[in-house]
Amino acid sequence: MKFNPSRPYTVGLELEVQLVDSFTFELTEKSFVLFDKASEKLSSVLHKEFLQSMVEIVSPPCDSSEEATNILREAYEEIKKIGEMEGFYPLLLGTHPFANPCEIRITKDKRYERLLEEFQIVLKNFLIFGLHIHVGVESEKELWEAFNMALKYLPLFIALSSSSPFYKGRFTGLHSYRLKIFEQLPRAGVPEQFFSTEEFEEMFNVLKNAGFVESLKDIWWDVRPRPDYGTIELRVCDSIPDFNRIEAVADFFKLLVAWSKGKNGERFYHQIVKQNRWNAVRHGLDGMFIDKDGVENINSKIHGLIEDFDREGLIERLGVRADNLYNILSGFPVSYRMMQAYKKGESIRKLARFGLAE
C-alpha cells in the first residue's frame, strides 16, 4: 500500500445533504433533479449517494478550512435555489427526525446493491448524514501519529457536531444517534490503534483476500487513514447546519493533526475510547472524558486543547481564523436547541427545520 504524501495540513470536506419536501419536510427523491439542473461549478463538487433523497458535496483539497467551507456554502446555496423552484429543501442534520426507512429508495449502483445484499435490514435503516474531514500529511510517520491522536480525541468532535437526537419520529435521548446506527456495520465504529502502514496493510489484506473488502472505501471507521491520499480522515461528525461551525470543527481537527506531529503516541485502551465515545454520543459537550490524568468534562477538554495549540503557536502559524474558532467552540451544537424545543412541546416534524443551514 503506497503512501502518497500531501501538502501538509490541506483540508478537504465532504458534506452529506438530505433533500426534503418543502411542505411536509419528508425525504424526497429529488437527487436526479439536482444532477440535471446543476451548473458546471456545482456539478464539479456534487456526488451521488446511497439514497435517492441525498447528495454529497465534496471539496477539493484546500489550503484552509475557510476555503473548503466556502465551497460547501456556495454549493449548498445553489442547491437551495434549485430546491426553491423544484419543491424541496436541503437539510443538514445527522438523521432525518421522522422518516420511515421502509419508504426510502436506494440509488441504483452496483456497489450500493452489493452492500444492501450483504447488510440487509441494517443498511436499510441508514437514514444518516455526516461530515467527513480530510487533513493532509507529508509523511507516513505523521499519518500514524495523527491517526492515533484523532482516535483518542474523536469524542470531542462528536460533541462539537451533534445534530441527530431524533430518529423515526422518536426522541432518542442521545445527542448523536447517527453513530449508534452506523456502528452496526462490521467495519465501522472505533478502530484499534495502528502505528505503521505495514501493520494497517496486513490487516486490510486479510479482509481483502477473504473477499470482504475491495478498497479502503469499504472501511468505515470513525477515523480512517488514507495512505493513498496522504490524509487522515475524520468521519465521526454529524452533518452540521452552520457553515461557521463546519469551518471551526475542521480547523480544530487540522490543529489536532498538526499538534500530533512528533508525538509518537501512547498506547491506550480500546474500551476507554469506546466509553468516551458513548459519553459524547449520550451527553454531548456535558459528557465526561477519561484520560490517564483522570476524568474531565468534554467541553473543558476541548478548551484545554485549544490552549495547548495556542501555546505552541499553531493557531497563528496555520492561519486559522481564531475569532471563529473561539466563538463557535464556546457555543453549543444544534442538538441542544432541538432537544430544548422538543421539551417545550415542539413537534418532531417541525424540528426538521433546524436542518436549514445558517
Characteristic terms for this protein:
globular, 15 helices, 358 residues, 45% helix, 7-stranded antiparallel sheet, two-stranded antiparallel ribbon, alpha+beta
Q: Give the percentage of residues in beta strands.
A: 15-25%
Mean pLDDT value? 93
Low-confidence stretches: none
Number of strands: 13
Estimate the global geometry from the Cα principal axes: globular
- How would you sum up the major sheet? 7 strands, antiparallel
Using only CA atoms, what is the Rg? 19 Å
The secondary structure category is alpha+beta
| Total DSSP helices | 15
Termini gap: 41 Å
> What portion of residues is helical?
40-55%
Brief account:
With 358 residues, the chain is an alpha+beta fold.
Note down, in words, how this protein is organized.
- The protein has helices at 31-37, 40-43, 65-86, 110-119, 121-124, 140-161, 177-182, 197-209, 243-260, 270-283, 298-311, 314-317, 322-329, 334-343, 348-351; strands at 11-21, 46-48, 54-58, 88-91, 130-136, 166-167, 170-171, 188-189, 220-221, 223-226, 231-238, 288-291, 294-297.
- With 358 residues, the protein is an alpha+beta fold.
- Strands 1, 2, 3, 4, 5, 10 and 11 form a seven-stranded antiparallel sheet that branches.
- Strand 2 and strand 3 form a beta hairpin.
- Helix 6 (140-161) runs antiparallel to helix 9 (243-260) and helix 9 packs across helix 13 (322-329).
- The N and C termini lie far apart (41 Å).
